[in-house]
Specification:
With 339 residues, the chain is α+β, with helices and mostly antiparallel strands. The protein is built from 6 helices and 20 strands. The protein has 3 domains: 3-65, Uridine Diphospho-n-acetylenolpyruvylglucosamine Reductase, domain 2 (2-Layer Sandwich); 70-181, Uridine Diphospho-n-acetylenolpyruvylglucosamine Reductase, domain 3, CATH 3.30.465.10; 230-334, Uridine Diphospho-n-acetylenolpyruvylglucosamine Reductase, domain 1 (Alpha-Beta Complex), CATH 3.90.78.10. It binds uridine-diphosphate-2(N-acetylglucosaminyl) butyric acid.
């Protein structure tokens, strides 16, 4: 196979801080710039680069989504429909909403990355998910070279999942996202850590801004800032098991935490599984399992994507050996073999 031309360094474009190259990097500021790209061609879509692990130099183009702008499509007594460009920083949109006292995304404060990436993995945190406010996405269809709308129900949003990363991968590129935000919003403080942070400040009936501030504080205390320590947030998804499997595990590991889901399944925190296997705070070379949150892997400095992947595989294997549960990566793993 042909050698990959080291055209553009990607170090500044991925929050793990991996020193890899793409053959080219294209800054997409208008949907029409996607016209030359068709399914089957070697290219990848990049947002903020905050949820990707690059394990080699990349063949073809990296298309960096930089379509920006926030505009109100509809405004009434209940709330607004807001349309944002895929390249807009997610937290910038959260700040925009909070500044106008519009509720629905304050629990998703400080999530790194872009608006366009938000529906792809249905971002979620502190008891809220994008799916609750998602109205539609505008996508560029690489097969037809046209734009179309994908409505909320159509998009298959689930736990860190959607059709955009499933059956539509390589076909639809999200150019804009439209959200339904509320004017008289009752904040969601279902998570104990959020309530506790508010209570510490003497707040029992919080405003949207106060919820956001509390969440920003919690995230800053628990999660490493990619500007200081390379990482991509949770490396793995939490594990989902059915009720029978949960009972078996609970018998063997009575101290195992789990969260009952509406569909009868149970979510087991992968952070706990990893910590129980002794990985929290451990490092191998320049890669570590973060000392304050075992679900996060960090690049201490100069780690390669391959090294991080090997460490992640070692952790998965040990969790599997101990609990019989398979950890699924939450980050996208990008690599092209040179052989
Ligand atoms: N836990 C441990 N040890 C750890 C980490 C977690 O035992 O080192 C256990 C504890 O029982 C804790 C539970 O896991 O109560 C949940 O931990 P936490 O609230 O930190 O959340 P998480 O399940 O580890 C998920 C998301 C995060 C999101 C938080 C807050 C996934 C893959 N991750 O993490 O999202 O911020 O909930 O709601 O679902 C991300 O996607 O990048 C991300 C950071």
């Amino acid at each position: 196979m042909e050698e990959i031309r080291r055209g553009t360094p990607l170090m500044a474009y991925n929050s793990f801080g991996i020193d890899a190259f793409a053959e080219s990097l294209v800054h997409i500021r208008q949907p029409e710039q996607l016209a030359p790209f068709h399914p089957g061609m070697p290219f990848r879509i990049l947002g903020g680069g905050t949820n990707v692990l690059i394990t080699s130099d990349l063949r073809g183009a990296v298309l960096r989504m930089e379509i920006d702008g926030i505009e109100v499509l509809q405004d009434n007594a209940q709330g607004v429909l807001v349309r944002a460009g895929a390249g807009q920083a997610w937290h910038g949109l959260v700040e925009w909403a909070i500044g106008r006292d519009l509720g629905g995304i304050e629990n998703l404060s400080l999530i790194p990355g872009t608006v366009g990436a938000a529906p792809v993995q249905n971002i979620g945190a502190y008891g809220a998910e994008l799916s609750e406010v998602f109205a539609w996405a505008e996508v560029w269809d690489l097969e037809t070279g046209r734009t179309r709308q994908v409505k909320g129900e159509e998009a298959g949003l689930g736990y860190r999942d959607s059709h955009f990363k499933g059956m539509w991968k390589g076909r639809y590129v999200i150019t804009h996202v439209v959200l339904r935000l509320q004017r008289h919003h009752r904040p969601n403080i279902s998570y104990a850590v959020v309530r506790e942070a508010l209570e510490k400040r003497g707040i029992t009936d919080p405003s949207i801004r106060e919820v956001s501030n509390a969440i920003v504080e919690i995230r800053k205390a628990k999660l490493p800032d990619p500007a200081c320590l390379g990482n991509a947030g949770s490396f793995f998804k939490n594990c989902s098991v059915d009720a029978r499997r949960y009972s078996e595990l609970k018998l063997r590991f009575p101290e195992m935490p789990a969260f009952a889901q509406q569909d009868g399944s149970f979510k087991i925190p992968s952070g706990w599984l990893i910590e129980s296997c002794g990985w929290k705070g451990l490092s191998r070379g320049q890669v570590a399992c973060y000392e304050k949150q075992a679900l996060v892997l960090v690049n201490i400095g100069g780690a390669t994507g391959q090294e991080i992947l090997a460490f992640a595989n070692e952790i998965s294997q040990s969790v599997f050996n101990h609990f019989g549960l398979k950890l699924e990566p939450e980050v996208n793993i990008w690599g092209d073999s040179q052989i």
